[in-house]
Write a sequence for this structure.
């Protein structure tokens, strides 16, 4: 009896070990791509008011002013806003059948794309007058620029580089982490030589090399908008703007009541700080 009991225990051990190995093999692919590049948490520097009716699809800070493009059919707009108060200074309503997406400010103009209409708009930055329209194939999601070229995301791992003079495609690259293509790239921002991209329906932002498409780092913004600021309508993180003159990074989300200036905290530094201070932070990191 005793030998049979030992034998049963041995078989149970073998079964549990096999199950553990199989479970490890079934880890979804995206987290493996996430876990092998530098990761960043965040610290909130300042919280500003944000219109909770704005379904944020494009966000950019230019010469002291915030510009925002919003989506949803019948509610899509282009706005000029005061950062401190969140007050809308100028606004254009898009035609009701259009779903507004990314915006970017370049050479005194504001460019805005739409989701599935293949139509883009170019406005004068100061007067908000429509200067011209343009057409492009596929979907329009996020927009950004590096001063020379415009970057367009469309929800796929591909980023298109457009010539701002013609709005025609010059080249494209695939965003990847450890050879794995990264999908659902949404709102974009040019930050000190890197392209930042919200990953749709997640709290993550990818830091991307605009040369190779490689993900250079992941920013985890889990917990940024506190539970007391959430309603059943509150949607996902979307919207990154960088103030290059003041080196300030702003983020918000669709229908969020707040827009945050954040500082990135490398994951390793966060852990070291926790150990030195001898207490744990209640703010989630990485
Ligand atoms: Ca942006």
């Amino acid at each position: 009896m005793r030998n049979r009991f030992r034998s049963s225990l041995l078989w149970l051990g073998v079964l549990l070990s096999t199950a553990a190995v199989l479970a490890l093999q079934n880890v979804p692919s995206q987290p493996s791509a996430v876990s092998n590049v530098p990761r960043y948490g965040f610290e909130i520097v300042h919280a500003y008011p944000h219109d909770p009716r704005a379904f944020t699809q494009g966000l950019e800070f230019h010469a002291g002013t915030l510009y925002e493009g919003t989506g949803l059919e019948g509610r899509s707009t282009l706005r000029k806003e005061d950062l401190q108060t969140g007050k809308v200074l100028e606004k254009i309503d898009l035609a009701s059948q259009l779903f507004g997406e990314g915006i970017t400010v370049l050479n005194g103009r504001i460019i805005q794309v739409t989701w599935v209409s293949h139509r883009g708009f170019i406005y004068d930055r100061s007067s908000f007058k429509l200067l011209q329209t343009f057409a492009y194939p596929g979907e329009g999601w996020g927009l950004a620029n590096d001063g020379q070229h415009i970057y367009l995301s469309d929800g796929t791992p591909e980023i298109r580089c457009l010539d701002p003079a013609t709005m025609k495609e010059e080249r494209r690259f695939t965003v990847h982490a450890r050879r794995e293509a990264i999908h659902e790239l949404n709102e974009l921002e040019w930050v000190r030589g890197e392209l930042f991209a919200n990953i749709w329906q997640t709290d993550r932002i990818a830091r991307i090399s605009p040369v190779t498409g490689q993900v250079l780092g992941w920013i985890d913004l889990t917990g940024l908008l506190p539970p007391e600021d959430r309603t059943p309508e509150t949607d996902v993180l979307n919207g990154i703007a960088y103030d290059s003159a003041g080196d300030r990074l702003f983020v918000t989300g669709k229908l969020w009541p707040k827009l945050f200036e954040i500082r990135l905290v490398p994951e390793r530094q966060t852990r070291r700080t926790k150990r030195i201070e001898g207490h744990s932070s209640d703010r989630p990191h990485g």
